[in-house]
Amino acid sequence: MINVAIIDYGTGNIASLSSAINSLNAKAYLATSLKDIQNADALILPGVGHFGHALKNLKKNSLIKPIIEIVKEGLPTLGICLGFQILTLSSEEAKGKDGMGLLPFRTLRLKQDYPKIYKIPHIGWNLLSLKNNNSKLLKGIPEGSRLFYFCNSYGVKATKKFNGTFAEYTHEENMVGLVEYKNIYGVQFHPEKSRKQGLQLIKNFLF
């Protein structure tokens, strides 16, 4: 059975994520220490919360450097929503605070030139458009079914510095919804709240 460490930084949608993982015959548990992540077969940084607050709690538990090191060593890692943003270089939500820098993106507040049409936070369903390469996370999910549940006020813009697989969604402008680079995966949406296609995505990550 695969042991899946869900990083606990005092926020995140832990219950539904754990339930989704356990339904796939994997074992989910909260990780609050170095030992917890060393015993994992896969690592997930969950979504929901504030960028600065999450990093503060990670630093308090002396987890930032160990997570960076273990990810660089090859541990399969998935960042969900806020967790994806934490893997980037920085976020406008907490200016002056560095992210983990494992992905060469910067997290920005969503653009809102047309507030009557595009609301912030962006809450609801949105379709992904795969831009390059074959996607491990989207395997077995038909193109027309790549509809996922979002809840975010900040997002990630594409960059030429990234040469991995990525997919975009549109909320006033094109934003990165999914990335894959070696053992590192990030999604801006919540697969644990995205019906059978979300469950398939989590399964694709784990197996």
Beta-strand percent range: 25-35%
Strand adjacency order, main sheet:
2-1-3-4-13-12-11-8
The total of beta strands comes to: 13
Largest sheet: 8 strands, mixed
- Our measurement of the CA-to-CA distance between the termini, rounded to an integer number of angstroms, reads 11 Å
- Overall radius of gyration: 16 Å
> Total domains, how many?
1
What overall form do the CA principal axes indicate? globular
CATH class reads Alpha Beta
CATH homologous superfamily heading = Class I glutamine amidotransferase (GATase) domain
The CATH architecture can be given as 3-Layer(aba) Sandwich
- Total count of helical runs of at least 4 residues: 6
Binned, the helix content reads: 10-25%
Q: Give, in order, the helices and strands.
A: EHEHEHHEHEEEEEEEEEH
CATH fold-type name: Rossmann fold
Rounded mean pLDDT score: 95
Note poorly predicted spans: none
Q: Would you tell me the structural class of the helices and strands?
A: alpha/beta
